[in-house]
Design goal:
heterodimer; A: 472 residues; mainly alpha; B: Alpha-Beta Plaits; 2 domains; 4-stranded antiparallel beta sheet; 47% helix; elongated
């Protein structure tokens, strides 16, 4: 029924059958934890412990534990917030936007990418909540009637838009991810041998049977959710950028921010997806599903978004000069040549120069090169946010209040800690959940597999039409 | 009360689609078809109508839009008006982001909750799967057996001649 040009590279290699897909994906869910996974989890749990300790210090002693000062009131916290939210965007892009564009290569990576989205948003949410200083009053950001009379929240503030954007993004992504997981949980349930596993996965699978009617609705729901998630993901980083752009700080007050932030988010997100997938495919032996074709496709997205980001950096500089506003001009000269020049040039090198290497096909298809470049991109995108936030703030309008920011051990601890939190969640996901969407990979198997699967010998996936004609 | 079903097991989606057409053409009513993944074109051959879930999503989204606009206009415009940044009390452009987010939130959740209800999906330890292989690699066509009406050998032949690799019987307590 589905026709794919024969010149397209196969998306599933190794001549897999439907049953092979089930076996390959369920294997690590059903097997005992392997030693490499346990070792990785141990390292991640150390990170989580650092996070818990740093959070405890922040809550107990207050924001004074951080390196913030009167001039630089936002630094690592908001840098990390934007960095994590940006990483999350690739998951939604893969699951929603590529679904709308009918890109079939998304099927084997969307599950893990969406999981990454959810965990990244959890990590991101930690920063604004901790930055409140009194996180137990976090519900004050909601429009609730309160004891001081009905003084409502300020709907004109981008920070409040962020509350709505991030929470909507998180919950809609979670639902989207879970809907996709239901049929796969049913597969694991029907294979489970132990009573605990059977009951647990039966509970998670919501009683899914795979009836044609349910699949029809499932596809409708997926398509509509993709249609909703696409503008949603664009709106989220747009609103994050408005946290800066609606202020009057030189270096922040620019109209280029929304598209520039969205491109940067996709750029960093794809880098993180690749970092994770290159490890996951190796550890769980999924090379036949996450092929070099997938890596290459993602690298093409990286080069596109990386170039958009590069153009945005140059445009910002040009407009700062062209505006004729001396504060704006100074903010940018200060970025490139001021005391934080190293952060600026680290950003330029990692984000603008390294991804250009992907113009070479051999580099696009080299796992080692891709892995190294994606690490560079992850670092570069962290520096981008640091540069935007700290260098714009540290020399404000009065030279007497100029200051430098240096992180404390607690700042570093919270950042490293969220990486621990992220990997703890991701490793638990990788062990107990199917990391590849089995149902969707099975759906493309006949049209996009390396060796066509012919159970009867007489039937050919591509011969459906002629078959229909000969047996009307 | 128990119901009896005949299950035709298939292992190829194209064979299954052709079989569905032929079985329906032979005047047999198909109770349900189970598959490990969504099959394109199965809706047409089974006569499944287009889902109305998008309409649900639209109206839930419309509710979200109206609720968000009403909430912001009422709170900042009437209940406790304040001048913020010299803007009017009802600063519509500034209300758009929250309106958009609540539209998406209501549309998505309204549709998904409706999907769960109409498809009878809920967390439960009980599972009624006709053939466990249908979530792995087999396609299962279930046909309800009516005592005294269904001609079993003929049905068996019909399924097998249309490519079923197995034909089983199953009793389900309803």
């Amino acid at each position: 029924m589905q026709h794919v040009s024969p010149i397209r590279e196969p998306l599933v290699t190794g001549g897999k059958t439907y049953h092979d897909i089930t076996e390959d994906v369920c294997r690590q869910v059903e097997a005992k934890p392997n030693i490499r996974w346990a070792a990785a989890l141990a390292v991640a749990l150390v990170g989580l412990a650092i996070f818990i300790y740093s959070t405890y210090r922040t809550l107990w002693y207050g924001i004074g534990e951080w390196g913030l000062n009167k001039t630089v009131g936002w630094a690592w916290d908001i840098t990390n917030f934007v960095w994590w939210v940006g990483i999350g965007h690739a998951g939604t892009l893969i699951s929603a936007i590529l679904l709308l564009f009918r890109q079939k290569w998304r099927t084997s990576i969307n599950r893990a990418a969406e999981a990454m989205t959810i965990f990244a948003v959890i990590c991101a949410a930690m920063f604004p909540v901790l930055h409140m200083g009194r996180p137990w009053l976090a519900y004050w950001v909601l429009p609730l009637p309160n004891t001081f009379g009905s003084l409502w929240v300020n709907f004109n503030s981008p920070l409040l838009w962020d509350v709505f954007a991030i929470s909507t993004y998180f919950s809609v992504s979670l639902v989207f991810w879970y809907i996709g997981l239901i049929p796969d949980f049913a597969t694991i349930r029907d294979r489970a041998t132990g009573p605990i596993a059977r009951r647990a996965y039966a509970f998670l699978s919501f009683g899914w049977t795979g009836s044609a009617k349910a699949w029809s609705r499932y596809e409708t729901v997926s398509l509509i959710l993709a249609g909703l998630a696409t503008p949603l993901v664009l709106s989220v980083h747009t609103i994050v950028s408005m946290d800066f752009a609606t202020s009057v700080i030189p270096g922040w007050h620019t109209t280029i921010f929304p598209p520039y932030f969205v491109a940067g988010a996709i750029f960093s997100g794809f880098a993180m997806v690749l970092t994770l997938m290159i490890i996951t495919r190796k550890v769980f032996k999924l090379e036949d599903y996450i092929t070099l074709e997938h890596v290459e496709s993602m690298n093409k997205v990286i080069i596109l978004t990386g170039s958009i980001v590069g153009v945005a950096y140059i445009t910002e500089f040009f407009i700062a000069w062209y505006s004729g506003v001396e504060y704006e001009q100074y903010a940018f000269i200060n970025r490139a040549t001021g005391p934080y020049w190293w952060a600026y040039w680290a950003m330029m090198t990692c984000n603008v120069i390294t991804p250009q290497l992907f113009w070479f096909r051999t580099i696009r298809r080299s796992l080692t090169a891709t892995f190294i470049i994606t690490i560079f991109v992850n670092i570069g995108m962290w520096f981008e946010r640091f540069v935007i936030i700290v260098t714009s703030l540290h020399r404000d309008f009065l030279p007497s209040s100029w200051a430098m920011f240096s992180p404390t051990i607690i700042d570093i601890g919270i950042y490293v800690g969220t990486i621990g939190l992220f990997f703890t969640l991701f490793l638990l996901f990788a062990k107990f959940f199917p990391v590849i969407n089995m149902a969707e990979v099975k759906a493309i198997l006949k049209s996009s597999s390396e060796v066509k699967h012919h159970p009867h010998g007489t039937m050919h996936g591509t011969d459906k039409d002629s078959h229909t004609n000969t047996h009307p | 009360m128990t119901k009896k079903f005949v299950l035709g097991i298939y292992d190829d989606e194209d064979v299954l689609l052709q079989a569905i057409e032929n079985v329906r053409a032979a005047g047999t009513n198909i109770y349900e078809v189970f598959s490990p993944y969504p099959i394109h074109g199965i809706d047409d051959v089974l006569g499944i109508k287009r889902s109305r879930l998008p309409i649900v999503a639209f109206f839930c989204g419309l509710f979200g839009t109206s609720f968000a606009l009403w909430m912001q206009i009422w709170m900042l415009g009437f209940d406790w008006p304040m001048i913020i940044g010299g803007k009017p009390h009802i600063a519509l452009p500034a209300f758009i982001p929250v309106t958009f987010e609540l539209t998406v939130l209501c549309a998505a959740f309204g549709m998904v909750i409706t999907f769960f209800i109409v498809t009878k999906l809920k967390p439960s330890f009980k599972v009624n799967v006709f053939d466990k292989r249908s979530t792995d690699d087999k396609f299962v066509m279930a046909i309800e057996v009516k005592e005294g009406v269904t001609n079993m050998p003929a049905l068996n032949d019909l399924l097998r001649s249309n490519g079923a690799i197995e034909v089983n019987e199953k009793e389900v307590i309803k």
